[in-house]
């Protein structure tokens, strides 16, 4: 495709084109011909003919009203006809894989001059590879799906799975053996919880919370019970296809009748020879609209049992409308006398509670890691906005009340980051049994703390952005999405109140009998 040659113009030449039918403006040393676009401009045409805009350098006004990405969209980029002689652009397009230079825009291990006890050169290389892949492949898809509510496309899943994305999201372990991770950047035996922490953060940086759950979170919580408790036959049938992105799986525990109080579940599995006959409903099932398998909590004669159900006769799913995008595939699932081979039982009959509990720490930590990265993105948005937005002739950050909010946002996200990293370090260095017994309480407390901090930051960010935080497009769109959806982090995987309670109950259990003031 032929590229347009850009001419150089002087400021005086541009100034001649300042009327209807002949309108040029300068934004950041680039000359745009808006003559034909003016009538199509979403902000109206009259604002473009105002004094100080038509034929003039409108950089400051432009960045008070638009995100930079507007200029990068192909339909607008082609309005550029030249550059201003002797001037250079100062606001650069984001480079795939680049590190933000905004203070606190990145965790400190990525900031210039800061040291870290946790991350190695391999984590840095891995981070760069993941961020580049996310920028090039996932971000455009995330923005599209968040808006149109469609599930992630198979083409994008295929590209992700070429890098063994689903396998990495399950964390370190023997399921990684023999796989090539991110084109070989990290060897399976090198992959640790800090790699996974990086991955969980990078997928959460688009301000698209519904899509984030649609990015195969069902696999992350639905597959581990199969990996850890499924028979060799079931594993051979299910695991390779799910890791390859050919099939999808969802965790189906919660019901309209019962959530955390698993004993109240009403989905029943009754034995009929070599089959279970399963009847019941499940609600809020992430990725359920497109899942091929359901890791399902059932009431059996003796207690609670987890059974893998394949989509087929008697299984139906319908989307539930929730506050976030239906790209998450949140479903209401109905099982109507579904016949499932007894061999699909995961773990022992009646032992479902330990099957489910075994993955809770990982799930909660995973939600926390993504929640933390979304929170940091909002801090970065606020720092940028408070600097570029002028009120009464001064930047927003010249107001003490705004600086105070920023100070609290930064402190919260840094506190969360440090705690998440400390827990991640423990996960890296503890045996599985130690993790189960020692970390359930701390991870519960960590998750409720991070989500609570996130919701406070969502409130503060809304005040900083004002009306812009209420619109799904434009300057405040990320803040709008975060404010509307940060409650998901506070609820999915265990609500804040329940997790806080869990943490304290663990403390009570471990209090020394002779502790006295
Ligand atoms: C290359 C030049 C320009 C392009 C491509 C452009 C494009 C757009 C787009 C796509 C929107 C919709 C909101 C969004 O998605 O961010 C918008 C809104 C707007 N634009 Fe422009 N614009 C340009 C220049 C200007 C200039 C120079 C002004 C100066 C007054 C202006 C004033 C506005 C206003 C007031 C809005 C409404 C903002 C809001 O609703 O908050 N635009 N423009």
Question: What does the model show?
Answer:
This protein has four domains: 7-84, Cytochrome b5-like heme/steroid binding domain (Flavocytochrome B2, Chain A, domain 1, Roll); 109-215, no CATH class; 243-350, Butyryl-CoA Dehydrogenase, subunit A, domain 2; 360-510, Butyryl-CoA Dehydrogenase, subunit A, domain 3 (Up-down Bundle). The radius of gyration is 26 Å and the shape is elongated. The strands form four sheets. A five-stranded mixed beta sheet has the order 1-5-4-3-2. It has a four-stranded mixed beta sheet with strand order 6-9-10-13. A four-stranded antiparallel beta sheet has the order 7-8-12-11, with no helix packed on it. A hairpin with a 4-residue loop joins strand 9 and strand 10. It is α+β, with helices and mostly antiparallel strands and 517 residues long. It contains 17 helices and 15 strands. Helix 5 packs parallel to helix 8. It is 45% helix and 15% strand. It starts with 6 loop residues before the first strand and ends in a 7-residue tail after the last helix. Bound molecules: protoporphyrin IX containing FE (HEM). Protoporphyrin IX containing FE (HEM) binds at residues 25, 27, 32, 34, 41-43, 47-48, 53, 58, 61-62, 65-67, 70, 76, 79, 473-474. Keywords: FAD, Flavoprotein, Oxidoreductase. This is Acyl-CoA dehydrogenase NM domain-like protein. It comes from Guyanagaster necrorhizus. Residues 6-85 form the Cytochrome b5 heme-binding domain. GO terms for molecular function: acyl-CoA dehydrogenase activity; flavin adenine dinucleotide binding.
